[in-house]
Structures are given as C-alpha cells and as structure tokens.
Amino acid sequence: MSAPRLLYTLALWLILPVLLLRLLWRARRQPAYLEHVAERFGFYRQRIEGPCLWIHAVSVGETRAAEPLIRALRARHPGYRILLTHMTPTGRETGAALFGDTVTQCYLPYDYPGAVARFFGHFQPRLGLLMETELWPNLVACAVARGLPLCLVNARLSERSARGYQRTGLLARDVLRGLYAVAAQTEADAQRLRALGAQHVTVAGNLKFEVEVPAEELARGAAWRASLGARPVILAASTREGEEAQLLEAWTAAPRGEVLLVIVPRHPQRFDEVAALIDRRGLRQQRRSQALQIGADTEVLLGDSLGEMYFYYAACDVALLGGSFQPHGAQNLIEPCALGRAVVLGPSTYNFAEAAAAAVAAGAALQVPDLARGVETALRLLDEPQRLAACGAAGRAFAMAHQGAAQRILGLLPENI
Predict the structure, then answer these.
(1) Which of 217, 182, 228 has the alpha carbon at shortest distance from 203?
(2) CB-based burial label for 202 (10 Å; 0-12, 13-18, 19+)
(3) What's the gap between Cα 260 and its chain centre?
(4) pLDDT band at 228 (very low <50, low <70, confident <90, very high)
(5) Mean pLDDT of all residues in the chain?
(6) Is 282 exposed, middle or buried (0-12, 13-18, 19+ CB in 10 A)?
(7) Residue 254 pLDDT
(8) Are strands 285-287 and 300-302 parallel, antiparallel or unpaired?
(9) Exactly one of 35, 39, 49, 62 is catalytic; which is it?
(10) pLDDT tens-digit map of 139-182
(11) Which of 238, 233, 249, 277 is nearest to 370 (CA)?
C-alpha cells in the first residue's frame, strides 16, 4: 500500500465513529438509513448466479442516468446480470422503481480495504462502471489488484471539485491512473481530469440526454393536467432547503391569478417541513399522496411522492429548476427539456454547467438571478403562449441533438469480459 493511501486508510478508520453517527443522524429523518447496514461493511445476503456487470450509482440522479447505459449493456451482454450499487436509500428506491428485480441491488461498502475485498469476492463482477465522480482509493486499488477493468463514466468534475482533488496530490493521481477508461461529459471535464492524472480520457457526452420517458407516466401526467381544465401549472422541481421559503415569499407577493403551484422537494424527509412552510404562508394546499382531484380553491400542491418526476413534468406548463436558486449546482434540466417544457434556471448550475449554458443559448431555458425573478418570468411565460411553445420546441430539439452518450461509452469498454 502506498504511503498516501495508507494515511488515507488510517484517517478512514479514525472517522469510523463519525460515519456510524452520521447514519444514525440521517435516520432521524429517513429511517431507511438503518436498513442493510451490514452491506456498508461488505457483508451481503444476495447471491448472483453466473457473470455480472457492476454499475455504481450513488443516489437518485446517477441511478436515473444509468438507465440507458444498463439498456445498452443488456443488449450487448444478454447473459450477464447487472449489479447496481448505491450509497443512499433514495438511490436504492429509485433503482427498484426503474428496474424491479431485473437487477441486483445493494449498497457499496465504505472504502475500507477489508470491506471492499469482501464486496469483490462476494459478487466477482467482470466489469465495473462508476457513475460521475465516485473515486475511492481502496476500491480502485482492489479492482486493479484483481485485474478488474474499472471505468469512470458520465464523468464530471467541477473546478471546485478539481481543486479539492489537487490538494490530495499523489492519492488522486494514483486513483485516476488505476482506471481502465474515463468517459467525460464535456471537454472541460476531460481537461480537469487529465490535469489530475487521468489517462485514456474520452469525451462521450452526458447520459442524461438519453432520457426515455415512461409512456405511462407521461399519459398519467397529461390526464391529470387535463383534469384541471384551463388552469395553468408552474412546477418547482426538486427543490432544496432554503428554496421553498424564498419561492413561497415570491409567490404570495406575485399577481398569480388561478395558477396552481406544484412544489416537489428533492428529499422526501423534508416533505413535512415544506408542508409547514406552505401553511405558515396561509396558502391552501393539498398533498399528492392524499388527493388526486385538486380543489378549485387549492393554491399549492405538495408533491410528496417518489419516482414521479416525469408525471410532474408532463403535468406542468413551466418548470422552475430546484437546486439552481441555492448554491447546489442545479438538478437535471434535461428531463423537462426533453418533454418540451419551458425551464427557468437560477444562477447556480455548476452540476450541469455546459448543458445549462447550451440550453439557454438554444432558447430552451431562461436564466434569472433569484426566485423572485424566477416566479415573475414563469408567470410572464404563461401570458405569452407563443413564446412558451417556442421554449418547449427548443427544449425537445436541444435534448435530441445531444443524444448518443450510451453508445459512445459502450465503445470504450472491453468487449471480452
């Protein structure tokens, strides 16, 4: 073991109590964090008969992005089982909703050498694909020692993250050089990864453009929207902490008429918190989990359901993109664009920097400095149906023009596994 990795591993052992306390803390809001704890240390009950291909998708966004890649891998290797690992319960729930029992799911263990060795020994994958920026020194070192081709796919690396990795020096370089291939989302991501020491880096595009809208979700959303008659719908999609309060302040101050506001928080453990914020503003609300029929006097619908983002996008006229109005780098803007919905972005888009800039340039999205302007812009779009339709059409064209990442990634992987 190299000196940098040894120091890293010792530090990891020292913070073990912190990791356990963090699980307990997160379980206060999301009890599922206390399920399958043994898996986080490399102990598994699931068995896979025959060869498998492993994909690691940390949470919801990475799991959804992995869907087209999983389809492509199944077509190319029909005799292989897919092993899908996560780090969060919501990622695991999303995987179950998308794939059911057609994949095997579990948690990836924490990056302790013994836990990682048990993971590889138990499942014995033939190929490993890490989604986006999952770089764990002991995991990569163990894969190299076992001769397992390990690839970083749909890779993105912001300037801020790159500076963090630079501070680790040789540790980051050794991790990146242990990868079989890197498929970066953009040329800027590729350059930052190469500067840190990554080899065999190719720009393959963003898998999130490979969106395949579930027809059932689209039909249900459209039917629900039709049930509202002429009443317009503005969706605040995947909102993060701090955004809902600002949104509701702007909403109560705006001349909004009969417009229905739908708020879908990014994290399910915050549903009750957001409901309380709506009540404090004196707005009449309903919950998606409690009612399908929207009362004529309802002003806000709280989207407290999981796995229904396509439903919500299909049901709205304009989408305010959560995570972009606080410094969280934005959520996925590609899904609403692909469905032909006008998108209003805030200033923070570093998770989708190139896609956001391209969407704005194409007329598929509008960028504003804050939520007050966001609400104002969304309401103004409702009053300009031709502009609204043009934004939607530009969004569809934008999404279609950037597809093909799954096949490009497939071309980088070893054929004989």
Answers:
(1) 182
(2) middle
(3) 26
(4) confident
(5) 94
(6) exposed
(7) 92
(8) parallel
(9) 62
(10) 999 999 999 999 999 999 988 889 988 888 889 999 999 999 99
(11) 249
Note if the pTM is more than 0.90: no
Q: How far apart are the first and last CA of the chain?
A: 27
Find the mean pLDDT for residues 256-278.
Answer: 94
365 CB-contact burial (10 Å; exposed 0-12 / middle 13-18 / buried 19+): buried
Q: Kindly list the structural domains of the chain, giving each domain's residue range(s) and its CATH number in brackets, ordered by start.
A: 3-206+404-412 (3.40.50.11720), 215-401 (3.40.50.2000)
Q: For position 291, what pLDDT does the model report?
A: 67
157 CB contacts (<8 Å, ≥6 apart)? 133, 165, 184, 189, 192, 193, 196
Mean pLDDT check: name the lowest of 50-54, 207-211, 385-389.
207-211
Q: Is the pLDDT of residue 278 over 90?
A: yes
Active site (annotated) includes residue 62:
yes
**Separation between Cα atoms, residue 318 and residue 391, nearest integer Å:** 10
Report phi then psi at 238, rounded to 5.
55, 50
Residues 6+ apart with CB under 8 A from 415: none
Return the structure tokens found at 185. 């989302």
